[in-house]
Amino acid sequence: MLSWWQHLPEMMNPIALSVGFFSLYWYAVFFLSGVFISLLLALFFTRRGWSPCSEEDIFDVFFFLFVGAILGGHIGYVLFYNPVVFLSNPISMISPYDFRSGVWTGISGMSYHGGLLGAIFALYWFIRTRSIEKRLSFWKMADFISLLAPVAIFFGRLGNFFNVELSGRVTDKPWGMIFPNIQPIGTLRHPSTLYEAFFEGILLFVVLLFFRKRMPFPGALACLYLAGYAGVRFVGEYFREPDTQIGFFFGGAVSLGQIFSVVMFVSSGVIFVWQRQKNHATIVQKG
Question: Distance between CA atoms of 168 and 177, rounded to whole angstroms?
Answer without folding.
Answer: 9
